[in-house]
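Structure ticket #2291
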Amino acid sequence: MRNTRSATKRRTPPSPNLGTRAATPDVPGLTDAHPLTHVEALELDRLPSHLVVIGGGYVGIEFAQAFRRLGSQVTVLEFGTQLLGREDLDVAAAVLAVFEEDGIDVVLGAETRGVEGRSGVPADTRSRAAARALARWEGEGGRVATTKNGQSQEIR
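Resolution: structure written out below.
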């Protein structure tokens, strides 16, 4: 049996994945509002009075709980029917129960329709949810944070 592979064929080594960068969801006005990402949230020099977190994944819930325990009012807007959409329902329910005890407002099934204003000054976030036909979240010194799954960054 003869080997038909070419000995001169070169393989390209895989690019290392060294983390992610934030991805901003496609919500009208969100990019113009200059939302916080996980990076900017860690660089704040003062605590926001109200943090609106768009997304109830791992990063979103970590920041929601941290900012709430530091004293901010926090609202989490999650498009899905549960927090931590990839987890089992009992795990998501346990996290939701902790959030309720902590005073974090969670809106499940939220369709974020738009953001007006700029993060860091009174910003207005409009969402539609089954339990709340059309709701608005705003606050003095409020911040809008995005937590959509990051996009991998590769070094070449």
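Closing remark: DSSP finds three helices and nine strands in the chain.
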